[in-house]
Amino acid sequence: MRAAWGGLLSKTILFSAPFPPPSTLVAVVGVLGTRSLGIRATKPKMEKKNGLEREAVRKKENVINSNPKVNRIQQLMNGHSHGGWEKCWDQGLTPWDLGQATPIILHLHQSRALPKGRALVPGCGTGYDVVAIASPERHVVGLEISDTAIQKAKELSSSLPNANYVTFLKADFFTWLPTELFDLIFDYTFFCAIEPDMRLAWAQKMRDFLKPNGELITLMFPISDHIDGPPYKVSVSDYEEVLHPMGFQATSIVDNELAVGPRRGREKLGRWKRSSVIQSLL
Ligand SMILES: C[S@@+](CC[C@H](N)C(=O)[O-])C[C@H]1O[C@@H](n2cnc3c(N)ncnc32)[C@H](O)[C@@H]1O
């Protein structure tokens, strides 16, 4: 079964224009955010879904299966490896792009629940999440392998008030060497985009790029049973398998009740710290 970004969604639901003014974002998340108090903690292992929930997820995947854009993306990726991403951007094949920041990261930012300092968003695409969490107290680096995506991100962010607090860099996450370490790394739809055999290298980079007491936040998506990719299916144990050997432990894993449209029920928010730091806090 094939699945996709569930990206058939949001432009119709919330925003038609890319990079809405921050006031719009605040208003929308203000509305969505009232529900976020109900964010439900789950065990770090994937919980079993009941029959109805499984059926709902299967229906969403079936709808998405028929998305020809995803099939085309997978063909491009199979044929071109890294260059495939540039081709996707070049051809406008970006069904993952929400056209807005993901509401949960904006909510965490607005509720002052994110570390300050330096933040990194790898595989940042158009950079909505980068801009959303940037502030005078937090400088955010958006890293992208695609020139087209970086150009788009720069153009879209240039006129925004917090443009001064973002840097967009074109580089390969796996070979890039930052000049300074980070207090926060936010991964959304990057883990599921890379080849599964790169996940251990992904975790090593997370360890290497974070300050010792830095925090990794993973918005895990798509939690499903499909085969093939990108996007490759993910599960909480997929993250644990590569993050535990690097000394990371989850400080919380919760269902993302602010997930947008078809992504609902298929996202979990994981917050991770290196275990030596967790032990010293006890
Ligand atoms: C599925 S998209 C997600 C984009 C963005 N996070 C979002 O949610 O809209 C994955 C992104 O990762 C980028 N990417 C893939 N491999 C990369 C690498 N090795 N280094 C940096 N970026 C990469 C792709 O160009 C693509 O824009």
From TrEMBL:
CDD domains: AdoMet_MTases. It holds the Pfam family TPMT. Gene3D superfamilies: Vaccinia Virus protein VP39. Keywords: Methyltransferase, Phosphoprotein, S-adenosyl-L-methionine, Transferase. This is Thiol methyltransferase 2. It comes from Xanthoceras sorbifolium. The lineage of its organism: Eukaryota, Viridiplantae, Streptophyta, Embryophyta, Tracheophyta.
